[in-house]
TrEMBL record:
InterPro entries: AAA+_ATPase, ABC_SmlMolc_Importer, ABC_transporter-like_ATP-bd, ABC_transporter-like_CS, Mo/tungstate-bd_C_term_dom, NA-bd_OB-fold, P-loop_NTPase, PotA-like. GO terms for biological process: putrescine transport. It catalyses: ATP + H2O + polyamine-[polyamine-binding protein]Side 1 = ADP + phosphate + polyamineSide 2 + [polyamine-binding protein]Side 1. Residues 7-239 form the ABC transporter domain. The keyword ATP-binding applies. This is Spermidine/putrescine import ATP-binding protein PotA. GO terms for cellular component: ATP-binding cassette (ABC) transporter complex. It comes from Pseudotabrizicola algicola. GO terms for molecular function: ABC-type polyamine transporter activity; ATP binding; ATP hydrolysis activity. Its EC number is 7.6.2.11. The complex is composed of two ATP-binding proteins (PotA), two transmembrane proteins (PotB and PotC) and a solute-binding protein (PotD).
Length: 368
């Protein structure tokens, strides 16, 4: 049983045209105490709606929210032991940093001596000691985000809800704040529920990721499981980049599965979840594919995929190689970059692409 349970949550919005939109469709998630859970998905998937329902800003149309075995359905937002960090930080520009952090305590009737002490501790926690007398306009975006965090943490919530708080930061600052947020969550020891549409952000920060699409929960698992073993085609395509091949399981030997695609290509993977004749999709991440040297044979019993380089994209540590592999298909290979480069993978070059069967992941051929 989870510390915070979302049970069969449903939410429907009526549109101005008279139709309805199912924002949440039977979503169940057991959130653990002291974990960093990320709600991940594209725009309109229901992740922000779910966060608002947890906070109490929106009412569920069905299902329940249970905290420590007690329903929250009738509990107003200001009485729920949660705090929210918004995308725009929502700081008061006429107040100092210290006054912003202490504002919630002042409303709650905490004495000034206690407010000052706790505000100082909170600012120290987020690395802003000595900034208490400044105005928000005198701070950088990353510093303002830290103030918003301090203001929420100073009230000692059981759960901190974060609605895309890093989206306004530049890439370098965002990467820095990802590490700081994760470290902060460990330091304060409370549950973080984080909303984002950024897959890399979710993979870097989370203990678990809840992937949502069209109001439904697609997968709930650790970052490595979500990436290495996506539950369905939507997750495979949304979280990271995938090469995907549809086919029929032709033979099985132990955990080694051979599938045959519609154009006769035979590919391999390892799994114990399928039978001969099952319709499946093989998921191969670009980093699992290798441009073979002329004298390399690749994995035993897995024929190399023949192709012709269409284009290459330099992205720093790797070269993204787009290769035509016939029948209208393109394979994406993440090829290690060397300073010397390689004429063997220039556009137009004939290449052989290999992979290990153990790196292939099979999913049932059905829609998400």
């Amino acid at each position: 049983m989870g510390f915070l349970q979302i049970l069969s949550a449903r939410k429907v919005y009526q549109t101005p045209e008279g139709s309805s939109v199912q924002a949440l469709d039977d979503v169940t998630i057991n959130i653990r105490n002291n974990e960093f859970l990320t709600l991940l998905g594209p725009s309109g998937c229901g992740k922000t709606t779910l966060l608002k329902c947890i906070a109490g800003f929106e009412d569920l149309d069905g299902g329940d929210l249970i905290l420590d075995s007690k329903s929250l359905r009738s509990v107003p937002p200001h009485k729920r032991p949660f705090n929210t960090v918004f995308q725009n930080y929502a700081l008061f520009p006429h107040m100092t940093v210290e006054q912003n952090v202490a504002y919630g305590m002042e409303v709650a009737g905490v004495s000034k001596v206690e407010r000052d002490r706790r505000a100082g501790e909170a600012l120290d926690l987020v690395g802003l000691s000595g900034f208490g007398g400044r105005r928000p306009t005198q701070l950088s975006g990353g510093q303002q985000q830290r103030v918003a965090l301090a203001r929420s943490l100073v009230l000692k919530p059981k759960v901190l809800l974060l609605d895309e708080p890093l989206s306004a930061l530049d890439r370098k600052m965002r990467e820095t704040m990802q590490i700081e947020l994760k470290n902060l969550q460990h330091a304060v020891g409370i549950t973080f529920v984080f909303v984002t549409h950024d897959q890399e952000e979710a993979l870097a920060m989370s203990d678990r990721i809840a992937v949502l699409a069209q109001g439904r929960l697609q997968q709930l698992d650790t970052p490595t499981e979500v990436y290495d073993k996506p539950a369905n085609e939507f997750v495979a395509n949304f979280v990271g980049t995938s090469n995907m091949f549809a086919g029929t399981v032709a033979s099985i030997s132990g955990d080694r599965v051979i599938l045959e695609t519609g154009n006769g290509r035979r590919l391999a993977a390892t799994s114990t979840a399928f039978r001969v004749g099952d319709q499946v999709r093989l998921v191969l991440r670009p980093e699992h594919l290798t441009i073979l040297a002329r004298d390399e044979t690749g994995d035993a019993d897995v024929p190399a995929i023949e192709g012709r380089v269409r284009e290459t994209v330099f992205v720093g540590s790797t070269m993204q190689v787009h290769a035509d592999i016939g029948h209208g298909r393109t394979a994406l290979v993440s090829h290690p970059h060397t300073r010397r480069g390689s004429s063997d993978i220039a556009p137009g070059a004939e290449v052989r692409i290999g992979y290990s069967a153990a790196s292939g992941h099979l999913i049932p051929m059905r829609s998400a």
